[in-house]
Amino acid sequence: MYRAECKKCNGKKFWKVRKGKIRCQKCLYEFKPRLGRISLTRYQWKALLKWFLRCQRINAIVEETGISRYKVLKALGLVRQLMVKDIPNVFEGIVEVDETYLGGSWKNKRKQIKASQPRSK
């Protein structure tokens, strides 16, 4: 998950002040935290992720959300980077493949295939 850091002292403890700003506990610097330097509201992020999870094209997301194409590309790039970090260890290493039956029943085969192959029992 994304954690804000102070731009001046890299502090990690803050308190809320006003208009969405936070103040660093160490150096008292006030700033507005932005994820990946992309200024989107919570509702824009929610709409963007909704359309992203529905596997929509970038142009469709731009039309539906009303966000500029550049911001959508930057935001989705950031989402993909964060998704890569959350891949569990289960998907690493050697993969074993089990037996698989390909083909189907004899009655569903095409006539050309039936003519070229002898029927096996």
Poorly predicted tracts of residues:
none
SSE order, one letter for each helix or strand: EEEHHHH
State the major sheet.
3 strands, antiparallel
- How much is the radius of gyration in Å? 26 Å
Fraction of residues in H or I helices: 25-40%
Estimate the strand proportion. Answer: 5-15%
Task: Count the DSSP helices.
Answer: 4
Distance between the termini: 57 Å
Query: How many individual domains?
Result: 2
Strand order within the widest sheet? 1-2-3
- Could you say which overall geometry the principal axes of the C-alpha atoms support? elongated
Estimated structural class: mainly alpha
- Total strands: the figure is 3
| Global mean pLDDT | 83
Tell me about this structure.
With 121 residues, the protein is mainly α. It has 2 domains: 33 residues; 53 residues. 36% of the residues lie in helices and 7% in strands. The protein contains 4 helices and 3 strands, in the order βββαααα. A hairpin with a 5-residue loop joins strand 2 and strand 3. The longest helix has 17 residues. The protein is elongated and about 80 Å long. It starts with 13 loop residues before the first strand and ends in a 5-residue tail after the last helix. The model has no long low-confidence stretch (mean pLDDT 83).
